[in-house]
Design a protein that fits this description.
Elements lengths: L2 H19 L2 E3 L1 H11 L1 H16 L10 E18 L5 E23 L3 H67 L5 H35 L8 E3 L11 H11 L1 H21 L5 E15 L8 E14 L7 H67 L5 H35 L9
Helix pairs in contact: 2-4, 3-4, 4-5, 4-7, 4-9, 6-8, 7-8, 8-9
Length: about 450
């Protein structure tokens, strides 16, 4: 093999390994799509909605008639002895009688006090409630998803910051070692540099472990549908010009808990009407078609074979005039539950208004803190650069340099934390207003 060909193959291999080692970027919209498809809490909520959808079907309403069929067949073998009118006796041993019958039975409720109608409407409301509960699960999961997502993003930013900090500390240790060898500083300066470098190495090891744990948490929310070797987008875009009053109106119109309260009110209202239906009569229609056949080989039988078929129908009325008072009690309790649901909704409105104001103020404060910390980094960077320059020419000691380095590192870490906390606070405001699933993250 020629040297040129060997070098070419080696270059291709190195490039392949490098490409394989590169992490895949998991964008926010991709993470949300994967969670909606693979998250188990969301899957379970969708199954519950599917059951409620089946329950509201006309097949479960009681509006359709019931139709049943039955058939029977029997064979008898008996010994028979009989006496005729003229006094003669006859005996028939082993007489076989066969009987067959079949019937179709129809039962249909014409009127049940409108209880069937209100029950059908209640089933539809229960389906809507299940859909809203699934939406609440989705909103909660999405908020949890992005809380973990931006936690991963923050840890990624912090990892890069601590890597730069460690790089500076190692360069300082190397410089301190050279200076000690040439008698330009003391052993204490070298030991301080070594201790600081070790501390920075430990901090980097710990944060890398936190990052791996956070990635596992994120992948768990995705239903383990993504490769574990991934990174997230650390770019954060805040929504411009959010209107406080407009969002508050959307809280009153679109908040999922408030919509659930409306559905519960409707369900309890139909519950009252269903119980009142017990005081009215029930009218039903019944009908049947039957076929019967019997054969008898007895010499004593008047008919050896008998077959008949026909249709019958009728109307029945049932009116429970008094059931001991249970219908009255059930109706009173249904009215109380309706009043209770009304009070709970009124309380919920107040709770949501309070939660929105708190979330809005929290978002505004964290956004201000983020801007302040972002501006503070420039000052910390200038201070560190000046301190680093003074250290190189021996105008300051290593303790002052280390303090400036720590100040810069903390400033960057605090800025990272403030950025992602402000974004999570923004998402909480959107969740309360019912807009979390309607905007681009």
């Amino acid at each position: 093999m020629s040297v040129r060909r060997f070098i070419l193959m080696l270059a291709v291999f190195v490039c392949s390994v490098h490409a394989f080692a590169q992490s895949t970027i998991l964008a926010p919209e991709k993470a949300m799509a994967l969670a909606l498809e693979h998250n188990y809490s969301i899957k379970i909520s969708k199954s519950v909605v599917a059951v409620a959808n089946n329950n509201k079907n006309i097949l479960n309403s009681g509006y359709l008639p019931s139709l049943s069929a039955n058939a029977n067949g029997s064979i008898d073998r008996q010994n028979t002895e009989g006496q005729l009118a003229n006094g003669d006796s006859r005996i028939a041993n082993g007489v076989e009688t066969r009987r067959y019958n079949a019937a179709l039975n129809l039962n249909y409720v014409l009127f049940d006090g409108l209880g069937r109608r209100y029950n059908y409407k209640r089933l539809k409301e229960e389906y809507q409630l299940s859909a809203l509960e699934a939406r609440e699960t989705i909103e909660t999961t999405v908020l949890q998803l992005f809380t973990v997502y931006y936690s991963v993003a923050q840890l990624l930013d912090n990892t890069k910051t601590l890597e730069e900090t460690l790089s500076i500390s190692r360069a300082r240790l190397k410089r301190a070692n050279y200076q000690f060898e040439y008698g330009q500083n003391t052993k204490l300066d070298l030991l301080n540099a070594d201790v600081d470098s070790n501390n920075d190495s430990i901090n980097l090891i710990n944060i890398k472990q936190e990052l791996q744990n956070a990635k596992r948490d994120l992948n768990f929310l995705l239903g383990n549908a993504f490769d574990t070797n991934f990174e997230v987008d650390t770019t954060v875009h805040f929504l411009p010009q959010l209107n406080k009053d407009l969002l508050l109106e959307k809280v009153k119109q679109n908040n999922v808990r408030l919509l659930q309260a409306d559905r519960n009110l409707a369900i309890q209202g139909y519950g009252v009407k269903i119980n009142k239906a017990q005081f009215l009569p029930r009218v039903g229609l019944v009908g049947s078609y039957g076929w019967n056949e019997s054969t008898n080989n007895s010499p004593l039988a008047f008919l050896l074979q008998n077959t008949n078929s026909g249709v019958s129908g009728g109307v029945n009325i049932t009116w429970n005039l008094f059931d001991g008072g249970s219908a009255i009690t059930n109706t009173k309790n249904a009215k109380i539950r309706l009043e209770l649901e009304t009070l709970q909704k009124e309380q919920l409105v107040l709770d949501l208004e309070r939660d929105f104001y708190n979330a809005w103020d929290d978002y505004q404060n964290k956004l201000k803190v983020y801007h302040i910390r972002s501006n503070h980094i420039a000052t910390s960077k200038r201070n560190f650069d000046r301190t680093n320059a003074q250290l190189k020419i021996g105008q300051i000691n290593s303790i002052l340099f280390r303090q400036a380095q720590i100040n810069l590192t903390n400033a960057i870490l605090s800025k990272n934390q403030a950025k992602y906390q402000a974004k999570i606070a923004e998402l909480e405001v959107l969740r309360l207003s019912g807009e979390l699933l309607n905007i681009d993250i």
